[in-house]
Amino acid sequence: MVNIFNWIYTLLSRLLLSVLASGPIPKHVAFVMDGNRRFAKLRNRRVIEGHEQGFESLKNVLEVCLRLHIECVTIFVFSIENFSRPPEEVNGLMEMARGRFHELALQGQLLDRYSVRVNIIGNVSLLPEDVQKSVREMEELTRHNTRCILNVCMPYTSRDEITTSIRTTVASDVDPSLITPTLLTSNLPSNLLGSPPLDILIRTSGVKRLSDFLLWQCSQSTQIYFVQPFWPEFGMWEMSKILLSWQRGRWFGGQGSTREKEELEDEEVDEKSELLGR
Ligand code: FPP
Ligand code: MG
């Protein structure tokens, strides 16, 4: 009986993915994987079990993105602010980064199978030394992969990333009049491997805030989705609903449509005229 359910589930998911794949596919999707602790607490489980379930969701959702040939995925794994959480929780997350997360980059595992290149973004020096080594090793192990970029934000805040970009720019001795948004964008650590513009940002758990994540990258044509399920509950069906909504927007004059692109171009012209005092 269980086998029949598995078979139907696999068939339906294949069908759903092929329907989605027949429409436009976003190039870059980002996730704020929120709600792990509330998920655990509501079930009288330990906080770390919530994060463990969150890790399972991450693998599932990543696989959906990879099967749809999304070129770049950015995940908010650990905020710089998260260091102020109880040591037991912080240690648990570090343990996961060192262990099961690292394993994803090994031969035959998810990142290898789908040729995903890992890019760690954030103030890595704040991590324990063995975790620094482990995440750098993930970058090294996946260096030759070409099908998708996985930006892992850990430990990250957007303002810290923007500060890094400004520091890099100033250190290059560039004439201040030549500092442009394009130059600052190219010096963002998240742009190291040439991430495409961010099409979709998803935050789970009903919280409607960006919490210092990708503030610079969300500036223009990013569609932001705040959805109710906790991250451990988020899977292929929720992801498909979002992608269908984004595709509908592309077809019918919403986000990313030709009409919207023309409007954005007009906005840019207006902004430039304003800068020039016209
Ligand atoms: C936010 O939920 C989640 C995190 C701070 C951790 C995200 C980590 C994972 C999804 C697992 C993958 C882990 C690694 C190390 C690769 P929350 O803790 O803020 O939950 P709450 O909003 O219910 O309090
Ligand atoms: Mg939270």
Give the helix/strand layout.
Elements: H1 2-21, E1 28-32, H2 36-42, H3 47-67, E2 72-76, H4 87-103, H5 110-113, E3 116-121, H6 129-141, E4 148-153, H7 158-171, H8 181-186, E5 200-203, E6 223-226, H9 236-251, H10 258-275
Helix pairs in contact: 1-9, 2-3, 3-4, 4-6
CATH superfamily: Decaprenyl diphosphate synthase-like
Q: Specify the biggest β-sheet.
A: 6 strands, parallel
Distance between the termini: 71 Å
Q: Could you state the order of secondary-structure elements as H and E?
A: HEHHEHHEHEHHEEHH
Q: How much strand content do the residues show?
A: 5-15%
What is CATH's topology name? Answer: Undecaprenyl pyrophosphate synthetase
Query: Looking across the biggest beta sheet, what order are the strands in?
Result: 3-4-2-1-5-6
User: Any ligands, ions or cofactors bound here, and which?
Assistant: farnesyl diphosphate, magnesium ion
Q: What's the number of domains?
A: 1
Shape: globular
- DSSP strand tally: 6
CATH architecture group name: 3-Layer(aba) Sandwich
General description of the model:
Helix content is 49%, strand content 11%. Helix 1 runs parallel beside helix 9 (236-251), helix 3 (47-67) packs parallel to helix 4 (87-103) and helix 4 (87-103) runs parallel beside helix 6. It is an alpha/beta fold. Helix 6 links the parallel strand 3 and strand 4 (148-153). The protein is globular, with a radius of gyration of 20 Å. The chain has a single domain (24-158, 198-250, 258-275), classed as Undecaprenyl pyrophosphate synthetase. It has helices at residues 2-21, 36-42, 47-67, 87-103, 110-113, 129-141, 158-171, 181-186, 236-251, 258-275, and strands spanning 28-32, 72-76, 116-121, 148-153, 200-203, 223-226. A six-stranded parallel sheet has the order 3-4-2-1-5-6. It has ten helices and six strands. The model is unreliable at 274-278 (pLDDT under 50). The chain starts with a helix and ends with a helix. The structure holds farnesyl diphosphate (FPP) and magnesium ion. The site of farnesyl diphosphate has 18 residues, from helix 2, helix 3 and helix 4.
